[in-house]
């Protein structure tokens, strides 16, 4: 049942019940106080009044009796009509009036327990009054009269005393009862308060747990989901309160998380598969290139031996054909070498062996290797370098390969003019620029030329030779050094290729 | 002056080229087809120079080079590693095994002759 109530309402249940209970206690206390008041009034206005009035009644009756006795004594000595007697008779009548008033009060305040005494007193008071009034009216007085009066008086007196005793007892009883009631009432009040406190504590704990327990459960469920345990069951999905809404939201969260994880897993698997496939392909290429070199070695080796006349003198026509075989064989070898390099890069097997080197030596070596080519084409090849260059760290062989490729390209594509190599250095890096006066490269082709098997114009491959892999390999080598290879060019205005590499390449590259 | 060169090579074509090359410059060629045979032939013939391939059956060129370097009597024979096994770090491995020079295939016979002459002077 509690599950259906919103937490917002549930929070108010405990205080509401506690307040209701406290109102009950207040009501009960109010009733008890009223009852106590009634009991007090009963003692003070009832039994106690009866008791004191009865005492006064007794005195008043005694007073009347003594007046009458005095009247009787004077009647024996004085004649009727004497002033003293008249005064006495009037006094007796007025004292009876007091007696009547007091008795009336006694009758009105006395309880049921005193009704016998009251009726007896009424009877004897009536007789006593009748006899007394007869005497003061001047009726003849005999000894008989006096003794009757005395007897009646004594009866009356004893009944009045009885009434006084009774009413006192009654007052004492109700006092005891009231005392008992007050005592019991304070016990009940204390008990009620204890019950309220117990109920309050129980309710607070119960409602508190009713709110906090599902939340705690939900937290542990969410923790489980967070660590990938999607099989965990989510409690409280059927609830109609906020916890139910939360549980359903967590359910959606778990489903989505699971989908995400599954998707991620399948992506990771797909990626691993793709990477594996790529690695296999690269490994295959690396192995193939290696296997291709062995027969190439035999072809080029025999060709060179024949051309060197080791197997005897060679006819000119045959020599010309063998030279063609040698040129084509070397081109094929270049392709194989480039493919091997590229596949090693792809397979992550090309690592740099970083060591100290002099960029100056690299430039001089490259210059020495390509200068004959430039000269053969009638191109000027110039080098500009600062006198002092810092000792660099990197893979000298690979950097030489890059520079050879760039300068070789420049000479290959330039028919007229010059090729200039410029080296400059900053604090942390140096830049090598290779400028030519060749045909230049259109902007659209400037990105393409760094991709594998791309030359600006595919017809140039046939005209100029080359594998179309050199720039791609060079770019990768420079990037492995933590540098950049770029080109500045405009069709008709020549090209400048330049690379910037850190002077010291980190030891992690070695 | 004729010298004895031990060629360790499992490929017949490559042996043939080296034979023609060595004979053209007047040296005698001894052949071994694998690493184990290379060590045995080195002990038997005491060559003046060894041309060592790396990828060999039975025992590879690295191990053969190490064995020859470990032998007190053979220790001083120069060894040129001639290999198409040219992945990065291979040269370091060959140098660590104890070779004196490292030539990758395919080589130009003329360049190889120049290298051989360096050690046979």
Q: Would you kindly provide a written description of the structure presented here, covering whatever features stand out?
A:
The complex is a heterodimer of chains A (510) and B (121). Chain A has helices at 7-77, 83-109, 115-136, 143-226, 242-307, 316-346, 359-377, 396-413, 443-448, 458-464, 470-480, and strands at 355-357, 380-384, 392-394, 418-425, 429-436, 484-489, 495-502. Chain A is of the alpha+beta class and 510 residues long. Chain A has two domains: 2-210, Aspartate receptor, ligand-binding domain (Four Helix Bundle (Hemerythrin (Met), subunit A)); 351-509, Heat Shock Protein 90, CATH 3.30.565. The longest helix of chain A is centred in the middle third of the chain and has 84 residues, at 143-226. In chain A, 25% of the residues are buried. The model of chain A has no long low-confidence stretch (mean pLDDT 83). Chain B is of the alpha/beta class and 121 residues long. Chain B has a single domain (4-108), classed as 3-Layer(aba) Sandwich (Rossmann fold). Helices cover 45% and strands 19% of the residues of chain B. Chain B has helices at 12-24, 35-45, 61-70, 90-97, 109-120; strands at 4-8, 28-32, 49-52, 79-83, 101-104. Chain B has a five-stranded parallel beta sheet, sandwiched between helices. Chain B starts with a strand and ends with a helix. The A-B interface holds A 286, 290, 293-298, 300-302, 304-305, 308, 310-311, 333, 340, 344, 349-351, 353 and B 11, 13-14, 16-17, 20-21, 24, 84-89, 92, 105-110.
């Amino acid at each position: 049942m509690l599950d259906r109530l919103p937490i917002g309402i549930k929070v108010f249940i405990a205080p509401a019940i506690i307040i209701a209970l406290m109102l009950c206690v207040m009501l009960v206390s109010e009733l008890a106080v009223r009852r106590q008041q009634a009991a007090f009034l009963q003692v003070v206005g009832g039994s106690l009044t009866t008791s004191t009035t009865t005492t006064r009644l007794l005195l008043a009756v005694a007073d009347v009796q003594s007046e009458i006795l005095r009247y009787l004594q004077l009647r024996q000595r004085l004649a009727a009509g004497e002033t003293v007697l008249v005064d006495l008779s009037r006094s007796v009548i007025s004292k009876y009036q007091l007696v009547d008033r007091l008795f009336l009060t006694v009758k009105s305040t006395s309880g049921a327990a005193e009704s016998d005494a009251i009726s007896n007193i009424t009877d004897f008071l009536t007789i006593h009054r009748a006899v007394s009034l007869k005497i003061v009216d001047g009726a003849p007085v005999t000894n008989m009269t006096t003794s009757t009066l005395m007897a009646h008086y004594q009866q009356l007196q004893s009944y009045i005393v009885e009434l006084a005793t009774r009413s006192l007892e009654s007052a004492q009883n109700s006092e005891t009862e009231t005392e008992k009631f007050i005592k019991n009432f304070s016990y009940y009040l204390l008990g009620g308060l204890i019950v309220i406190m117990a109920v309050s504590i129980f309710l607070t704990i119960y409602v508190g747990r009713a709110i906090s327990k599902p939340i705690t459960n939900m937290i542990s469920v969410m923790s489980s989901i967070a660590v990938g345990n999607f099989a965990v069951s989510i409690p409280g999905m059927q609830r109609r309160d906020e916890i139910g809404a939360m549980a359903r939201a967590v359910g959606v969260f778990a489903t989505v998380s699971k989908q995400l994880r599954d998707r991620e897993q399948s992506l990771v698997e797909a990626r691993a598969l793709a990477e594996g496939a790529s690695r296999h392909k690269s490994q295959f290429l690396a192995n193939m290139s290696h296997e291709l070199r062995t027969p190439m070695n035999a072809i080029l080796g025999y060709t060179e031996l024949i051309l060197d006349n080791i197997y005897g003198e060679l006819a000119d026509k045959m020599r010309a054909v063998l030279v063609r075989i040698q040129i084509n064989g070397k081109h094929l070898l270049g392709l194989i070498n480039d493919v091997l390099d590229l596949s090693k890069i792809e397979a992550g097997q090309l690592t740099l062996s970083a060591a100290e080197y002099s960029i100056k030596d690299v430039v001089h070596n490259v210059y020495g290797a390509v200068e004959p080519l430039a000269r053969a084409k009638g191109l000027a090849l110039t080098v500009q370098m600062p006198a002092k260059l810092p000792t660099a760290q990197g893979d000298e062989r690979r950097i030489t390969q890059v520079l050879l490729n760039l300068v070789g390209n420049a000479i290959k594509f330039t028919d007229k003019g010059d090729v200039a190599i410029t080296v400059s250095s900053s604090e942390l890096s140096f830049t090598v620029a290779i400028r030519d006066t060749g045909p230049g490269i259109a902007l659209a082709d400037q990105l393409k030329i760094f991709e594998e098997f791309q030359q600006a114009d595919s017809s140039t491959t046939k005209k100029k030779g080359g594998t179309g892999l050199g720039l791609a390999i060079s770019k990768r080598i420079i990037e492995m050094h933590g540098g950049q290879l770029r080109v500045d060019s405009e069709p008709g205005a020549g090209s400048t290729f330049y690379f910037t590499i850190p002077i010291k390449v980190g030891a992690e590259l070695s | 002056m004729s010298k004895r060169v031990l060629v360790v090579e499992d490929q017949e074509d490559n042996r043939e080229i080296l034979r023609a090359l060595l004979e053209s410059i007047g040296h005698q060629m001894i052949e071994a087809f694998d690493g184990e045979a290379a060590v045995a032939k080195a002990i038997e013939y005491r060559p003046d120079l060894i041309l060592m391939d790396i990828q060999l059956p039975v025992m590879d060129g690295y191990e053969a080079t190490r064995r020859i370097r470990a032998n007190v009597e053979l220790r001083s024979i120069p060894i040129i590693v001639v290999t198409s096994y040219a992945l990065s770090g291979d040269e370091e491995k060959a140098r660590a095994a104890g070779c004196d020079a490292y030539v990758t295939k395919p080589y130009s016979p003329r360049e190889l002759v120049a290298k051989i002459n360096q050690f046979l002077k």
